[in-house]
Amino acid sequence: MPFPRPHRDDVLIAAVCLLGGLLLWSLGVHTNGPYAPLPSWVTLVPLVALAGLELLRRTMPRTTLIAGTAAVVVDPFTPGSIVSLLMFADIVYAAVVYGPPASARRIPVTTGMITLAVTIGFLAWLREPSALLIGLVTGLVSFGPATTGAIVRNHREAAEAARLRAEQTALLAEMDRTQAVVAERARMARELHDMVANHLSAIAIHSTAALSLDDAATTRQALTVIRENSVEGLAEMRRLIGLLRDSSGDAEPAAAPTLAGLDALVEQARTNGASSGLTFTLHDVRERGARLPAPVELAAYRIVQESLTNAIKHAEEGEVLVEVSNDGGCALTVTVTSPFGRRPGPRAPGSGAGLVGMQERVALLDGTFEAGPAAWPAPGTGKIWRVRAELPVPDDKEPSA
């Protein structure tokens, strides 16, 4: 095991203390007077030993304290040096500050008990008030530094805990910000897809029909539908951009669509899907006068809109049925069925983002969503593609007293 490299501050402390102790020894300045049992040169033994131990006060605090205690016990039998006592006090302080937590708890208690025992013992032995000075000196070089070290360590640990809490708070804030950005981007993606995909799908289908069919009437009808969807899609894009910007200029942000616009939405689908042999029917059996939260109405509207867009792009000839109901007022149910199968003629490509967007909208409201092929209620009539979403409606009524 390599010898630990001392800290540069510890090297400076050791050097200053050793030089100061040698200077006081050379001048004959001692703490115990000329009546010590050991000669003067023995004073240098604990002085040099404690100066060497100062080099290890951070890296080996417990070992330093044990060896320093043995060295300072020798000092009372020599003429003594005040520098040796100061270095031992610093070693006690370092053992509490840099030692393990168990030592930091035990050393102040142990030094306090030693100080009390020394004071009582010398009082009982000498039977003079001056024996209190011995206990005071013992407390100053042991219990005092240990208590100071415990206070400093507690402050350091509290500061470190505060720093860690600040870092955790900053990390949580960054995670919240990232999640908010991701959620906002997902919401923007859903809105952009739902607002524009319907018009672009109609444009793609009718432009393909105009290019593939050499008929003037069909071409003129297709171009009319293309123009209408282009204008409406551009208006939708402008409204979306206005919502995303801090200021949309002179135009006010458009209100979110509601279920009151389902008739217009289905009528637009009839125009866009006429060339594909599709018919569209709306059955709105909601209770009249029932009010729904804005998020529920927006989600239901977008689900119908995306389902009609998918029907125009993929459904074979037949009827597309839209059903909206709110049985009991506890949930809003939206069901869209369309003929399932491959149809001849032009088709618009799909990316699957529409189904993902519908699932996300329903999940945000804690509802249930299902989409896939199913059998017609009447046997032997083929399959249908069914989209069904059940959106919970919160009960906003005040509880009765």
Task: List the main descriptive attributes of the protein structure presented here.
401 residues; alpha+beta; 2 domains; 10 helices
Structure commentary:
- It contains ten helices and five strands.
- It is an alpha+beta fold and 401 residues long.
- It has two domains: 8-169, no CATH class; 259-396, Heat Shock Protein 90 (2-Layer Sandwich).
- It has a five-stranded mixed β-sheet with strand order 1-2-3-5-4, covered by helices on one side.
- The radius of gyration is 44 Å and the shape is rod-shaped.
- The two termini are 77 Å apart.
Helix content: 55-70%
Q: How many structural domains can be distinguished in the coordinates?
A: 2
Question: What distance lies between the first and last C-alpha atoms, to the nearest angstrom?
Answer: 77 Å
Which spans have pLDDT < 50 for at least 5 consecutive residues?
A: 247-253
In short:
The chain is of the alpha+beta class and 401 residues long.
